[in-house]
């Protein structure tokens, strides 16, 4: 009786290259998610800004200036300087320091529509006393006339 030996097939050589296709797919998905969420993170403080038909100001071409200070005032009267809570006394110090570094620094005030006018005036007084004269009010575009027809100033 003769027994035949069968030759075993050679196992495939180990693959030494890394397949980066799944890595690229994951990275592209993360980039798309980042692109979509970045505008939402610009201002995490939710305010009901007043509405107006005023045009948005533009910086003249060729003019370089320091980035504006973003001052927010929520409905409870709490101040936020560049998205961080700040007290009135510390705000005065920060604004004075900014005015000393560059007197042309712009202060952009985002005040909730429910904030009493007196509180806004106090904040404006702090900015003026600190030496800042370029103060802008951030608003939202007005709704169509059919929605806001009942709100006219006399």
Report on this model:
The protein contains 3 helices and 7 strands. The chain has a 5-stranded mixed beta sheet with strand order 4-3-2-5-6. The chain has a domain at 66-141: Nucleotidyltransferase, domain 5 (2-Layer Sandwich). The N and C termini lie far apart (117 Å). The longest helix has 17 residues, at 21-37. By secondary structure, the protein is an alpha/beta fold. Residues 147-154 have low confidence and may be disordered.
Based on secondary structure, the structural category is alpha/beta
* Overall radius of gyration: 30 Å
Strand content: 15-25%
For the record, give the distance between the C-alpha atoms at the N and C termini, rounded to a whole number.
Answer: 117 Å
Can you summarize the main beta sheet? 5 strands, mixed
Question: What is the class of the domain at 66-141 in the CATH system?
Answer: Alpha Beta
Helix fraction by DSSP (H/I, runs of at least 4): 25-40%
User: How many strands appear in the DSSP assignment?
Assistant: 7
Task: Please tally the helical runs, counting DSSP H or I stretches of 4 or more residues.
Answer: 3
- Which whole number gives the mean pLDDT? 79
Element-level helix/strand string: HEEEEHEHEE
Order of neighbouring strands in the sheet with most strands: 4-3-2-5-6
| CATH fold annotation of the domain at 66-141 | Nucleotidyltransferase, domain 5
Shape: elongated
**Low-confidence spans: pLDDT under 50, at least 5 residues?**
147-154
Can you name the CATH architecture of the domain at 66-141?
A: 2-Layer Sandwich
